[in-house]
Fold:
Amino acid sequence: MDRDGADSTLGVGPGTLRIPAMLDDAVVAMRGMDMSVEGVFRKNGNIRRLKDLADSIDKGTGDIEMSGEGAVQIAALLRKFLRELPDPLLTFKLHKLFITSQSKLYLF
Structure:
């Protein structure tokens, strides 16, 4: 994060949030695209291109131009990034709390 992080203003609140630069680039690129593509987060995209993009990001070869990629390709890259995190975003410690909070929403 210190080396490859970005101060993003896409979060909630008035301040900035330090997130991986690749994540910020992907969200910014997708916000500028037509997201009416059905199943954008379900489709695989081009697997060879996904591997090439991931490799270039891992090697740190500079800024990757994501606006030239399609929405499905960027969504596949985001899924790959989130899948390969060392710790899940929704931690096991808080699993019961997440389930309880979601079940309370449907009582109204």
Q: What stands out?
A: The helical segments are 21-31, 47-59, 71-83, 95-105. The mean pLDDT is 83. Residues 5-105 form a domain with the Phosphatidylinositol 3-kinase; Chain A fold (CATH 1.10.555.10).
